[in-house]
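Proteins fold reproducibly. Look at a concrete instance:
___
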Amino acid sequence: DLWQMAPPAIYGEPKITSTPEGHVTLEVVVTNAVPEKSTWWLGDKELEANESFIFSHSDEGGGRKTLKCEIKDFDKPMAGEYKVKFFSADGENHATFNVVAGNAPDFHDKPHIVQRDGGNIIVIKVRAKSHLEMKADWFKDDKPLKFTDRVKAVVKKDDKDKDGFQFLLEITGPQKEDEAKYKCVVKNSEGQNQQSLNLCFE
């Protein structure tokens, strides 16, 4: 098989999700890996599967596999840098998860762009939810975004979810200089999460 020649790779972004009951799930989609061989680590200690750490994998088709680690009843001492190492016949790779503490904000869906006023206003919309108060910081090409009378951040309650908010970046009269990678980092007292998208005009 050709795929055996390729080293294993991460597909998309590793994801951390948490439930209101305090369970945290780490997941990453990988390609060209033999999932049974994967190992999970916290710092430099290999984790063993037990009632606190439940490992699983599933086949997403197209040579992609999802590797998952469920952390039950997540507690502060379990915070830290988690890593999953995954292997192919002739290579290895790893994904890192920085699990801060309990329940970081979570996102409802992917960030997307909405146009208003015939394209005169472009809105980047991020939908997040959190059981604690959260705030959002916006970055443009990884530097803190400077707001102007043309570029504004707006926060409003999410009409579809009682714990949710919409974090909007509104750009009026978009110009060439607005083309960039925008990142929204949403944080609460227990952790943070981020989404980003590239804005470019035809």
Remarks:
- The chain has a mean pLDDT of 89.
- DSSP finds no helices and 17 strands in the chain.
- The radius of gyration is 19 Å.
